């Protein structure tokens, strides 16, 4: 019995002879962990590899720090550019300004008092509401009435009263003599008698033209009108549709401020002057 040479080709688990084929190099895969094949399967299972197993070890690692910096710098800008699907940006539903100053209920009255005091001209409720955006106009109006009642109740030398469509502090009439005494001690630019007469005609007959003022006063009033215009007590009111289209004049807002009037209806009536003359 002769010795037969041993074939080095291994047999497959199914008993079939395997042939040597070109296979990938095993250097890229760990050889310590053998892959067991179930002999009951007709075909060997596929070898599942993760991306980390097949990555090239010579490839440089991704620089994540640069992407984080770029994303960090632009994250706010990207979030600002985001718009809902309907194409409209989110709006505040409470109707208040996000930059509005916060104020408590106890602070509303003293704050309104400060605003009225520092205003150069009578301040309106709408102007106060722009500052106190979280306070409704109805509450501002009620607070002003409460503040005026407080000044009246304590007998203050000041009173809060409506003037020229707004609110301002003014001195009480019973102390006018003392105030006049103070003003006499100071140099002041007073209106001349012709300027006062012209201002009275304009106040009661406005809008009025220069020829109409001349007809009432009997003398020229050009110089007086220029003085009143320079002081801001009167203003032009357009031209009258008549021969020559003369300029018409009327009182300005400063006239109401100077005399402490809310509107022209508070002017004394002509009948009151007639009673004084008689």
Please, could you describe this protein's structure?
This protein is mainly alpha-helical and 278 residues long. Among the domains are: 105-174, Orthogonal Bundle (Arc Repressor Mutant, subunit A), CATH 1.10.10.10; 193-270, Winged helix-like DNA-binding domain superfamily/Winged helix DNA-binding domain (Arc Repressor Mutant, subunit A, Orthogonal Bundle), CATH 1.10.10. Helix content is 41%, strand content 9%. It has 11 helices and 5 strands; from the N terminus they run H-H-H-H-H-E-E-H-H-E-H-H-E-E-H-H. A 3-stranded antiparallel sheet has the order 3-5-4. The protein has a two-stranded antiparallel sheet with strand order 1-2. Helix 3 (105-118) packs across helix 5 (137-153) and helix 7 packs across helix 9. The N and C termini lie far apart (169 Å). The model is unreliable at 10-29 and 73-96 (pLDDT under 50).
Notable characteristics:
278 residues, mainly alpha, Arc Repressor Mutant, subunit A, three-stranded antiparallel β-sheet, two-stranded antiparallel sheet, 11 helices, 9% strand, elongated
List the helices and strands and how they pair.
Blueprint: H1 51-54, H2 64-81, H3 105-118, H4 125-131, H5 137-153, E1 158-163, E2 166-171, H6 176-184, H7 193-205, E3 208-209, H8 210-217, H9 222-230, E4 234-239, E5 247-251, H10 253-259, H11 270-277
Antiparallel strand pairs: 1-2, 3-5, 4-5
Helix pairs in contact: 3-5, 7-9
């Amino acid at each position: 019995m002769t010795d037969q040479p041993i074939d080095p080709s291994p047999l497959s688990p199914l008993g079939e002879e395997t042939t040597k084929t070109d296979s990938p190099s095993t250097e890229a895969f760990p050889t310590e962990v053998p892959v067991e094949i179930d002999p009951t399967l007709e075909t060997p299972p596929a070898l599942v590899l993760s991306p980390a197993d097949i990555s090239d070890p010579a490839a440089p690692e991704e620089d994540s720090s640069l992407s984080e910096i770029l994303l960090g710098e632009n994250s706010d800008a990207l979030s600002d550019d985001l718009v809902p699907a309907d194409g409209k940006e989110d709006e505040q539903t409470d109707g208040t300004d996000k930059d509005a100053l916060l104020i408590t209920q106890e602070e509303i009255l003293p704050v309104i008092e400060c605003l009225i005091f520092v205003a150069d001209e009578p301040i309106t409720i709408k102007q106060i509401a722009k500052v106190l955006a979280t306070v409704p106009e109805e509450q501002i109006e009620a607070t002003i009435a409460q503040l005026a009642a407080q000044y009246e109740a304590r007998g203050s030398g000041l009173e809060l009263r409506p003037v020229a469509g707004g609110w301002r502090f003014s001195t009480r009439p019973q102390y006018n003599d003392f105030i006049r005494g103070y003003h006499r001690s100071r140099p002041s630019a007073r209106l001349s008698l012709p300027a006062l007469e012209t201002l009275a005609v304009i106040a009661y007959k406005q809008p009025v033209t220069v020829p109409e003022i001349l007809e009432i006063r009997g003398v020229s009033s050009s110089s007086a009108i220029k003085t009143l215009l320079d002081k801001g007590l009167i203003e032009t009111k357009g031209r009258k549709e008549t021969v020559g289209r003369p300029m018409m004049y009327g009182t300005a807002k400063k006239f109401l401020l100077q005399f402490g009037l809310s509107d022209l209806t508070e002017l004394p009536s002509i009948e009151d002057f007639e009673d004084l003359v008689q």
